[in-house]
Amino acid sequence: MASAIAERLSGKRPRPRVIIIGAGFAGLGAAKRLGKLEVDVTLLDRKNHHTFQPLLYQVALAVLSPGDIAQPIRSVVRNYTNTEVVMDEVLGIDTTTRRVQLKSGVEMVYDYLILATGSTHSYFGKPEWAKIAPGLKTIEDATEIRRRVLLAFELAERQMLETGSHPPLQFVVIGGGPTGVELAGAISDIARLYMTRDFRHIDTKTAEVLILEGSPNVLAAYPQDLRESAVRQLNDLRVKVRTGAHVTDVQPGYVMVGEERIESCCTLWAAGVQASPLGKLLAQTQGVELDRRGCVIVNDHLNPKNLPEVFVCGDLAHFEQDGKQVPGVAQPAMQMGDYAGRRIGLLVEDSDKAARMKPFRYFDKGDMATIGRKAAIARVSWPFKANLSGFIAWMMWMFVHIYFLIGFRNRLSVFRSWAFTYIKLQDGVRLIVGSQDLPGWETLAATSPAPDVETNVMAAADGVKA
User: Fold this and answer.
1) How many CB atoms lie within 10 A of CB 204?
2) Under CATH, which architecture does the 2-46+88-122+274-356 domain have?
3) For range 156-170, the mean pLDDT
4) DSSP state of 303
5) Dihedral sign, CA of 391, 401, 337, 95?
6) pTM of the entire predicted model
7) Strand, coil or helix: 319
8) pLDDT tens digits for 34-66?
9) What is the mean pLDDT of residues 145-169?
10) Per-residue pLDDT for 448 more than 90?
11) Residue 458: pLDDT band with limits 50, 70, 90
């Protein structure tokens, strides 16, 4: 490794070196394309696995296990002999000398650079809310949300056994985009369907789920008929939706909407995203242009201004098509990564062909969002055009997501888990790991009805210390 790095630093390389930063959908899309070309590829990521983010919420709500939606990066690219994987973190990029500085202290030289580090949560200038209302971007986020949601039911059961009462099980999801809707529907499903026979002292079906959305509509990116269908399906799942609700404060045990206090045993964040910090780093050190979310503004070939050897893909890129910014979701990210890989191949092999290469254009096949069991919406653009909702949209959503999962083992495991969950109405990964503290629970418990003496006596008689 040391000799290889020395060789790169000296500039004595037989083939062009491409460094890809980030192994998400865009990064892997680029790596797969470049893996077939006469270049040397280094794939950098802080983690050793790729996460299929569209199904993170199912890990968060105990339908799937983390291993079902994650795949080691090395396994994904093992068949590309020109590709190496380095688990490290990028601290700096010098586009003048074409060097990438890593946290380990190593510097790597590149001929072409692909940036695909994605996005992170945005708390609109209130980073302290993150500890109270976790968002959903990583496996760690998903397991933390799972811990909090399941712990709320466990603490309610314990308090009911000890005192004869418990605080209302009201879950508040801030944000009515696809992630917020999916989280809310899944919480309702597990409370109404999957856990009803598992608790002896509480009725899980009494749990309430509330979506707070600041704009006039949930799922604003979808057509009006699908938005209306989504609200109806949410109501059928007993999920309450409040639009035009601007959250002004988030505290343990409650959320403030203006002057109104809304009690919450578990608050989840799905209200906003911002580009990864790498965008701001590039703006500060290299002068690239950013939009208000920190995304790097790119041209028709996905290059920042005056940096033709640098490509920005996925959520980190601000690319406009037909007057609108292409959304930061998996489908355009994969297409961007593939395009960047193809363009680098032409730049290496034939500069004349590269000059004639058509600009990137996002091929929109449609969007879909699941709402709950047998409930979903889908805007289909290819191979036919249609707006679908309900069971047929849900079935389409399932098969599309299984198809795009990386690795046969993952597809088989997810299909088996879904079959078990949706047919048997049971889920098998309701594990609580980590702390047994739930932010705000003590505050909520203090406001619940006073302990019932008779219940305490009965509990003590059953061998439980009241």
Assistant:
1) 19
2) 3-Layer(bba) Sandwich (3.50)
3) 93
4) P
5) positive
6) 0.89
7) coil
8) 999 999 999 999 999 999 999 999 999 888 889
9) 94
10) no
11) very low
Neighbours of 148 (CB within 10 A): 24
How much of the chain exceeds pLDDT 90, in percent? 76
Condensed to tens digits (0 to 9), the pLDDT of residues 286-345 reads 889 999 999 999 999 999 999 999 999 999 999 999 999 999 999 999 999 999 999 999
Catalytic positions are 182
Other Cβ atoms less than 10 A from the Cβ of 233: the count is 23
Contact in structure between 287 and 328 (CB atoms under 8 Å)? no
| CATH 3.50.50.100 domain position(s) in the chain | 129-271+366-443
Helix (H, G, I), strand (E, B) or coil at 17: strand
- CB–CB of 177/328 below 8 Å? no
Distance CA(416)–CA(403), nearest Å, equals 14
Identify the CA nearest to 62 among candidates 189, 235, 175, 202. 189
For the chain, the residue count is 466
Residue with tokens 């026979």: 197
Domain 129-271+366-443, CATH: 3.50.50.100
Produce one character per residue of 120-134: b if its CB has 16 or more CB atoms within 10 Å, e if not. ebbbeeeeebeebbb
- In this structure, are residues 71 and 407 in contact, taking their beta carbons and an 8 Å threshold? yes
Location of each CATH 3.50.50.60 domain in the chain: 2-46+88-122+274-356
- End-to-end Cα distance, the chain: 62
